[in-house]
Amino acid sequence: MNTGSDRGTHGSAADDATTEAAAEAAGAAEETPHVSKAPAFIKRNRSLHLSWQVGVFIVGLAVIGAGIAMLVLPGPGWVAIFAGLAIWATEFAWAHLVLRWTKRKVTEAAQKALDPKVRRRNIILTSVGLVIAGALIGFYLWKYGLVLPWSLKDQ
Q1: Which of the residues 81, 105, 110, 154 has the least number of beta carbons within 10 Å of its own beta carbon?
Q2: Residues 83/70, Cβ–Cβ less than 8 Å
Q3: Are 42 and 33 in contact (CB under 8 A)?
Q4: Which residues contact residue 63 at a Cβ distance below 8 angstroms, ignoring those fewer than 6 apart?
Q5: How many whole angstroms separate alpha carbon 44 and alpha carbon 48?
Q6: Which H or E element spans position 124?
Q7: Taking Cα atoms as reference points, which of 83, 53, 51 lies closest to residue 66?
Q8: DSSP letters along 89-117, please?
Q9: Taking 70 as the threshold, does the pLDDT of residue 77 lie above it?
Q10: CB 56 within 8 Å of CB 84
Q11: Per residue in 122-141, pLDDT tens?
Q12: What's the angle, vertex CA 24, arms to CA 19 and CA 25, rounded to 5?
């Protein structure tokens, strides 16, 4: 708690109190224990709560399994995987921690991608890759030509 004795001449007591309250709120948000999101009547009965957790685990596992399948099939695979992790995070502290870590890493990656140097490098690499791919396709067409499947003669 700030008593004002360590306050410099630049800030007021209201500024210090606001800063201290914000720091305490941020620390409390980081340290709050994970609490189940199950309704109160389910939490009262241990076997019902365990059944609820098993159901949440199975639903989350199904969504994550569908997300993994969508990585190779059409669909938003990563979105489904993170949705399944969010489902698990409603009941399991370890999933909550993993989801929070993932959010932090995605935010860091997004900030890094917005860096002008990184964007410039990505644009240059993409352009070089497109030029190389175009040259290879052009060489193939020059060497072998373009034969459409419906223009093939019986061989």
Answers
A1: 154
A2: no
A3: no
A4: 80, 81, 83, 84, 87
A5: 8
A6: helix 116-144
A7: 83
A8: HTT-HHHHHHHHHHHHHHHHHHHHHTSHH
A9: yes
A10: no
A11: 899 999 999 999 999 999 89
A12: 100
Query: For position 47, what pLDDT does the model report?
Result: 85
Radius of gyration of the chain (CA): 28
pLDDT at 7: 47
Q: How far is CA 126 from CA 32, 48, 50, 139, in A?
A: 44, 54, 51, 20
Confidence of residue 34 (pLDDT cuts 50, 70, 90): low
Query: Residue 57 has what pLDDT?
Result: 93
Contact by Cβ (8 Å): 84, 67 = yes
CA torsion, ordered 102, 106, 111, 112, to nearest 10 deg: 100
- 12 CB neighbour count, 10 Å cutoff: 9
Worst-scoring range by mean pLDDT, 39-53, 56-70, 84-98?
Answer: 39-53
Task: Record the tokens describing residue 121, joined without a space.
Answer: 């490098």
Alpha carbon distances (Å) from 64 to 49, 50, 74: 22, 21, 15
Query: Which pair of tokens denotes residue 91?
Result: 């009941």
